[in-house]
Amino acid sequence: MYGVVHDQGAVYDSTLACVPFLLALAASEEVPERGGIVELLVSIGREPEDGHGNANGNGSGAVGDRRNGDSAARAGSASSRAGALIRSRAEVFVRSAGDEDAEVRWTAVSALVRFLDEPARVLGLLRERFTVERDDRVLLALTESLGLFARRHPAHAAEALELLVAQSAPMYDPGVRLAALGQLADRAPDRLPPDLVPLVVRLLGQRSAARPVRREEVGSPGANTLVGRLERLRPSDEEGSRLLRTLHAGLGDRVDDRIALLEGQLTGPDPTDRCNGVWMAAGLLREWRVDHTRLVSLIGEQLAAEEGRLRDAAVSVLTDLFGLAAPATDRLATLVTSRPDRWVRRCGSGAPTLGGPLKALARSGDPRAVPVLAEVLAGPAVPADLGQVIVPLGPAAAPLAPLVRRRLGAISVDSPAGRALAVPLLSAVVALGDREALPEVMRLVRGTAAGLLPGEPYTGHVIRALGSFGPTAREAVPVLRGLLDSGCAGAAARALWEVEGDASVVLPVLLRELADGDTRRRRSAAEVLARLGPQARPASAALRRATRSDVPAERVAAGHALWRIEGDAEPVLPVLRRAWSQAPSTRRTVAGHLVGMGPAATPLRDLADAELSSRRRHLSSPEAFGSRDILEDERLLRLCREVIAGG
């Protein structure tokens, strides 16, 4: 039913139609697995501002956010009506809170707080349940529900907080105490004990000592599949992970306390607790600009652990730290050299990729990755992400250039498989800046029997590679000109300008892209027009219109192009300031433009000053770790320093 009427947390009219039947099933003691039914009802009726996922891990707070207009309104209406219907039948949860089945009680206590519109009665029921409940999991749910109650009913919060303080006392189970401390950190930090960090570390150790040991089934069927690997990256103790996440979220900007807590987690005796600590350290590093040396070093120490789940977690986190992974590179290098079988990863029939340890080492910029990458290039596989790891290595990657040329020279691109194999090598040519690879690239162009087909990834990579050769690629001019009327006209115009430098040829194409292209193509055209400088003056009127676009990135590209074309900063600076404030994702691009503008950017120097004084990363979010947000933020900080120095 989650998949059919509640997919990804959405609430439809069909979902609403199911609610009365689900409520009837939840009230019937003859029905098995009623706990799951109550859990489904909670997810359906949960208010968007709750911001939590449903039982399947899907966020129901984003009901209808993939829809537009009337569809979104209908989805919101269905969600509101579902919540109202469940609240009108909330007595079923009062009975369920005392059910013989602990699974039913576990789900019902949250439903009580969410749907019974009698705060005093709800608090009395929760207090009563604490006196009779003996199941540890239900006690945890009761404690977390008290925190939810305090958020939803501020007028009654004081009584709920007193109960939470009582639950944090030594007489209670370590898990319940941790849950209470997490809720207090969120709602009443002044009620936390002064020795919070050592207390939490001690409670964590006590809880772990009582937890049954879970053996890893490394040799089990599917362990090396993509699904198996993803399973190994999930916390094996999800309850403990949730307890500590709640505490970290409650501590918020008390970063020093959080770092001390993470150090306790990462140095504890239990590998599962250390694994949870690795993921939480990743969240903190992704959200805050802190002295990362100690934390990253401790994450690196987990690479020597015997537990595969812990090693995989550490590798995954280090991979997304890029240069910040430097304190762990010795451990990474040791793991890479000791495990040649992990240099390349193959999942099913998909293209091979670099193994996590080697990818993390290369992304950190450590030159010890280069000889290993050379061995990979000498083997049968060409990892799809090869080009991505060459840029961080910088000049140290130069020895890879002859190997890349040799592999390119051996490829036949008459088949889709051959063209797919060429893509990472072409990406590597661009990353290396290897102009000696022109003959190999031109051989590919001439050897493609069907020609360069717009929309095919291979074509885009060929065009970028040709553009990277600059004027030395004159023999590619006919090929690039032949693509100016295709679906990849913008990319071809960019490459042709780099090779030929003839504005009269590319300017009409770019003007057409500005007028007819989608947002991405308009932005790309503006970026190329900036390269043309004053020769692109006929595009000024269209670019001024683009500075009023609803898309911040498009406004930034158009504004920068106007500056490069006309040299007048006055109309451009407000465009850049507005984008900086409204869309943090544009800040690195804007900062790069400010560096290029030199003294003309002085009126926006305050933006760089404010950014450098902030402890929070500009794309800060503790969730969804695995993006390039840390890399983007570190680049932004470097550019901001250049803006200040240039001012």
Structure in words:
This protein has 647 residues and is mainly α. Among the domains are: 2-208, Leucine-rich Repeat Variant, CATH 1.25.10; 249-320, no CATH class; 502-568, Leucine-rich Repeat Variant; 578-647, no CATH class. Helix content is 64%, strand content 1%. The protein contains 35 helices and 2 strands. The chain has helices at residues 2-5, 13-27, 34-45, 69-88, 91-96, 102-115, 119-132, 136-152, 157-167, 174-187, 196-210, 226-233, 238-251, 255-266, 271-287, 293-301, 308-319, 329-338, 356-363, 369-378, 386-393, 401-409, 416-432, 438-447, 457-468, 477-481, 489-500, 503-516, 519-532, 540-546, 552-566, 573-582, 587-597, 605-613, 629-646; strands at residues 344-345, 353-354. It has a two-stranded antiparallel ribbon. β1 (344-345) and β2 form a beta hairpin. The radius of gyration is 29 Å and the shape is globular. The N and C termini lie far apart (60 Å). Mean pLDDT is 88; it is low at 49-69 and 216-224.
Summarize the structure.
This protein has helices spanning 2-5, 13-27, 34-45, 69-88, 91-96, 102-115, 119-132, 136-152, 157-167, 174-187, 196-210, 226-233, 238-251, 255-266, 271-287, 293-301, 308-319, 329-338, 356-363, 369-378, 386-393, 401-409, 416-432, 438-447, 457-468, 477-481, 489-500, 503-516, 519-532, 540-546, 552-566, 573-582, 587-597, 605-613, 629-646; strands at residues 344-345, 353-354. It is mainly alpha-helical. The chain has a two-stranded antiparallel ribbon with strand order 1-2.
